[in-house]
Design goal:
It comes from Hermetia illucens. By secondary structure, this protein is α/β, with parallel strands linked by helices. It contains 9 helices and 18 strands. It is globular and about 70 Å long.
Length: 372
């Protein structure tokens, strides 16, 4: 339309980025991108949707748009999100389509009142926003006798879902790219790497990213010279073309020249049934290494000890990944409003606890010194 302009060049909404590594940015999402997210949606007119994401996050806007365009029913509540509220609303309103971050899935699986009968109405459980651990998907699927978990990967900057695993792809993958979505994996020099080789995921969506509101420098930095968007995510393509995400590039940990990601330890920790949630970070050591530390929420009624965790990790992960920075139990892990772990805040908490622990240890050693 000559009067209104081209929808791909006109902002339809300004949506907050996740803010996991700093303050959220205002992302200009085009009108065309917003319509695209509804066109590729699996939501049907007969669906009843539930999602607790606020309207300033992409998932909240996505739920609103797709439910309107599909003519579906959307459940809206002012109740604070909790596993008890989620289960009650799903059962009461016969919810067929539920969208959540992995943290909510983990909380649901730890609820003693979860059952097949309470989730029998669910047709699609769409999960995304951060890395979805395969073991969580396996456990949740045992309760979804009439549906299954779909894993979604997207970026606010892209204005759309990038890939979807619809349950028939390997659980460790986020599936294949949606139509007209371009992806490539590159090394630190910007060169495309082969399959099963880790690198940064770069994306070129069907419609251009319109930039961060009022932040031209940040906008410039997110693109490469050919207009590809840097996702900041590390991953690789499997042999069949599925995208497998490893972790965030900024979250990489280094211990004595060994490079690894927090998720490599988290994947092993969540095998322990008594762990409800965990977030791993690195504590800066004097030699420049990152000492891995874990902040852990125990399952309800659990007597899990630090020794239990150390014993579980022995023989399952390499020596340089052992939790030298400590194991710390907490009632909750800091998260963004979109349900992602705030690793920066977790690192501050663990660093403080580590220093307190080291200080107490030094005091004990001092009292054992005989002065002459």
């Amino acid at each position: 339309c000559p009067v209104l302009g081209d929808p791909k060049d006109i902002p339809g909404a300004i949506i907050c980025s996740s803010g996991t590594t700093g303050l959220p940015k205002g992302v200009n999402v085009s009108q065309a991108s917003l319509v695209l997210c509804a066109e590729i949606s699996p939501v049907r007119s007969s669906d009843i949707l539930l999602c607790f994401s606020p309207m300033y996050w992409y998932s909240g806007v996505w739920t609103l748009i797709v439910s309107l365009m599909a003519g579906a029913t959307r459940i809206i509540t002012t109740e604070k999100v909790s596993s008890d509220v989620i289960l009650r609303l799903i059962e009461e309103y016969k919810v067929t389509f539920y969208l959540s971050p992995p943290s909510q899935m983990a909380a649901l699986l730890q609820d003693p009142n979860i059952s097949v009968s309470r989730l029998q109405s669910i047709r699609t459980y769409l999960c995304g926003g951060s890395k979805v651990l395969p073991i969580l998907v396996q456990r949740m699927n045992t309760y979804l006798k009439n549906g299954s978990v779909y894993i979604m990967y997207g970026m606010t900057e892209v204005g759309s879902i990038i890939t979807v695993n619809r349950g028939n792809e390997p659980l460790e993958s986020v599936g294949l790219a949606i139509p007209n979505m371009q992806m490539k994996i590159v090394n630190d020099e910007g060169e495309i790497v082969g399959s099963e080789v880790d690198g940064e995921v770069l994306v070129k969506p069907p419609y251009p990213f319109l930039g961060y509101y009022g932040q031209p420098d940040a906008t410039k930095n997110v693109f490469d010279e050919d207009g590809w968007i840097h996702s900041g995510d590390v991953g690789h393509f499997g042999k069949q073309g599925y995208l497998i995400l490893v972790d965030r590039k900024k979250d990489i940990l280094i211990y004595r020249n060994y490079h690894y990601f927090p998720s490599e330890i988290e994947n092993i920790l969540v095998e322990i049934p008594d762990i409800a949630q965990t977030c791993v970070c690195g504590i800066a050591d004097e030699d420049g290494s990152d000492l891995p530390a874990a902040l852990i929420v125990k399952a309800q009624g659990s007597n899990l000890s630090e020794k239990d965790i150390v014993d579980h990790l022995q023989g399952r992960i390499a020596d340089y990944k052992q939790l030298r920075g400590g194991i710390y139990f907490t009632d909750s892990i800091p998260m963004t409003a979109s349900g992602k772990y705030q690793r920066r805040v977790v690192k501050e908490i663990c660093t403080k606890l580590y220093k307190n622990k080291q200080g107490a240890s030094n005091c004990i050693k001092e009292t054992n010194v005989i002065r002459v």
